[in-house]
């Protein structure tokens, strides 16, 4: 297995101790991307990634190598401490640069493990935000570890046990190659973006992506099997959104 670690922390302290404990439960290669070292300029909100394609982003040369690493890995480990009740600015800036994946989800065969730490509060909220972002990107399954350290620098025994169990479930899921069916909200958003490509004046970058990948002709990514209820819901959502747009 090939694991990619995207570290949203500017340092290697509490959150990194979770990562090292996770690694002890996994077999394979580990590649690390420390966003503090990537020097990605701030997203300037130019909308070029949405309207003209991600390759037109003025910071494409900084962002795309990381995106390519995500495409190549078997499992993603993504981390952030809680800063002002949210992810770090480093991780938020990366998410801002990759927001086009909300319109053009791509990672339907990928799974991730989210690791978040805090000295106080907000860890579950931040872990949920990262999970939601990855699901909008198309990620099939995400596991979450969120720990409040207080004044400590290392996890306690019960927290180590939690990390181990979650990491082992993550590893077994990756090894199984199983793709899980989408959640209800995944179906809604997928078919909303799909329907927008059929509008009278669609976003051309989105339309090109959905048509070139043939995703526009499916209720969800075809590599993910849907049961009859999910398929019917997908058709219904697409019908409703298509009329709206």
Architecture blueprint of SSEs:
Elements lengths: L1 E6 L6 H10 L5 E6 H4 L9 H4 L8 H13 L2 E7 L7 H9 L2 H4 L7 E8 L4 H15 L3 E8 L8 H20 L7 H13 L7 H9 L15 H17 L1
Helix pairs in contact: 1-8, 9-11
Structural description of this entry:
- Helix 1 (14-23) packs across helix 8.
- It contains eleven helices and five strands.
- It folds into two domains: 2-176, Flavodoxin domain (Rossmann fold), CATH 3.40.50.360; 184-244, no CATH class.
- The chain has a five-stranded parallel sheet, with helices on both faces.
- Helix 1 links the parallel strand 1 and strand 2 (29-34).
- The protein has helices at 14-23, 35-38, 48-51, 60-72, 89-97, 100-103, 123-137, 157-176, 184-196, 204-212, 228-244, and strands at 2-7, 29-34, 75-81, 111-118, 141-148.
- By secondary structure, it is α/β, with parallel strands linked by helices.
Write a short abstract of this structure.
With 245 residues, the chain is of the alpha/beta class. The protein has eleven helices and five strands, in the order βαβαααβααβαβαααα. 48% of the residues lie in helices and 14% in strands.
